[in-house]
Amino acid sequence: MKKSTDKSAAGVKEIARLAKVSIATVDRVIHNREGVSEKTKNKIQAIIQKLNYQPNVLARRLALASRGTIRLAVLLPNISGETEFWQAPLDGINQAEAEIKQYGIEIERYFFDQNDESSFDKQVKKIIRQKPDGILFTPIFPEESLVLTEDCKKKGIPYVMINSDIPGYDSLCYIGAEIFHSGYLAAQLVNYCVAKTQKVLVVKIAREIDNNYAILRKEDGFRAYFSDNKIQNKILTLDSKQTDYAAVAKKLDQLIKKENDIGAIFVTNSRVSVVAKYLRKAGLENVLLLGYDFTKDNVEFLKDGSIDFLICEKPQEQGYRGVMTLFQHLVYSNTIEKNYLMPIDIITKENYQFYRN
Amino acid sequence: MKKSTDKSAAGVKEIARLAKVSIATVDRVIHNREGVSEKTKNKIQAIIQKLNYQPNVLARRLALASRGTIRLAVLLPNISGETEFWQAPLDGINQAEAEIKQYGIEIERYFFDQNDESSFDKQVKKIIRQKPDGILFTPIFPEESLVLTEDCKKKGIPYVMINSDIPGYDSLCYIGAEIFHSGYLAAQLVNYCVAKTQKVLVVKIAREIDNNYAILRKEDGFRAYFSDNKIQNKILTLDSKQTDYAAVAKKLDQLIKKENDIGAIFVTNSRVSVVAKYLRKAGLENVLLLGYDFTKDNVEFLKDGSIDFLICEKPQEQGYRGVMTLFQHLVYSNTIEKNYLMPIDIITKENYQFYRN
DNA sequence: CTGAAAGCGCTTACAG
DNA sequence: CTGAAAGCGCTTACAG
């Protein structure tokens, strides 16, 4: 390793020397602060230009570390067996926290019950009382989310939405997939694998279907693919507001008795494992089954062939990136991409081993 | 933003104070350096344990920045129209360089002709002469690569392999996909989309097929899926050591005249666009076509439906991660995962827009 | 409007 | 075997 040589990145000291001022003044110009005469300001800016000065991010962070703590609030569904999905974003958030807590970032976590809008409300009130410096949340309930976003706007608190978007809620940014398109993709896969004569079933399992933007958008996308491409398969629908196995199985049973020759089933969220369990018990494993998310249950059914395709949108990375975005914005005032669209990944029995959430 | 409070991460100073020694001695213990009495060493280690001391990476890097430059060498195929694929790893390398050049890392790039083993040889000699501190390369030619790895071992220079692996070449680490499995995955997709009576064609297009480990492994994996699952489709083979369109088209023409009812074609590398062009011209777009890599040409054919699936292994991330790994190893002596296996992504017409290499 | 000095947490000669 | 001091490049009171 030889000693670093020439162009070794001039810093504030060098600029100060060339401009015959102190580094404090250089700093003022770099940060566009008040109280520098036009003349010296111009002189310093010229030198910065000429030297193509790039601040040393390391040193900047280190110096800043001594300042105050930044407090972020995170609002996500709580994690139960049924909603294990949300572990992934949380993992990402934890990872981000580990990386940046050295810079004085603290993260407060709030959880709500996905089946209970009032629990969302309650947590929102708590957060508002805490006055965090930035918020990360997922707008599962559009109306209730509005309370939060309105308050944030009033107080100038930046907020990031992950996993699903609500157009018109003007956030700092959205990090997640284009969910309409993920339904579209599911339809493409179905079309590859199913005969033209077979029927296709869309299953929606959630306590709050009508108020669940993501679930509805996915079905829209799914249906759009068929109509855009003039594909004639008959599309059936099954909704279940009860999310337990018994209830879903019963409904499926009734439907399948009535409708013969269903070639594929598309479940619009991570509850696909419930359907997989039913198909396995009923000996209907030749039906193509697609659903969402890389949860433990789902992967088990993927392995044994009950589930054919899982669509996955890197939930862990969403959490990670969400926190990092707030960090970038609050600490460095970086400009932020309004929509960070995640890839829409296709997971099968033969590539799940290598998947990274 | 309130002032940081309590547990605000004790540092070397605090440790030194508690152990009643100087911070220099603490530093010696942290880095397991010689010349500290057992007694003080134990005392300091106990305190480090108790405080759960985490070094401040920022400060460490900043302090280290003043040391010498680290020089890395990168050896990749040159980028032509035909081998545009290699732009992606190079992009990743450039990105990594931008992030770490502040820490005194310099990267020297060397290119060889993928169709000419002697050009690889020549570049290896150049690199050896330069005595870099670390090397990143792709072992397309096993024998010629051995010259490089042997020399590195002798001199203790760490090297990282990306994109394809050669088992037994004991590198610092391999970053890339499990290529056998990527062939396996391709076969699964084919099996979903093709009738049992149809034939399947494997196409290998490369100047040096027999000496190209990756291409052979992918075919192995592809075939293994069929035999493991006792699937009976007849598998045909077409090899072309000429990589230009005219030559490949001619061979395909001959084969397709002889063999009727080919349901799918699997091309074992990024040259799949050549086959796509042929199928489009021949009006055979109903044949399922699969191949590798997110190149501009391939994506064009994906869009128009000539290619159905592209398998992609994040080449840009491979380059990025390769450089970062050498950096971690050389600067922080971090322990490195021996095999960093990339996901094997499935790209279609309906999700390519969101893919990130 | 401007500057001298201290500090961020760590590393490294150098001196004993 | 151990310590005092300078330095990494930047930021921030504080004093003028």
From TrEMBL, chains A, B:
All copies of domain HTH lacI-type, residue ranges: 10-64
Top-level taxon: Bacteria
Keywords in alphabetical order: DNA-binding, Transcription, Transcription regulation
Keyword DNA-binding: yes
InterPro entries given in the database record: HTH_LacI (IPR000843), Lambda_DNA-bd_dom_sf (IPR010982), Peripla_BP_I (IPR028082), SBP_2_dom (IPR025997)
Entry keyword annotation includes Calcium: no
Protein name per its UniProtKB record: Substrate-binding domain-containing protein
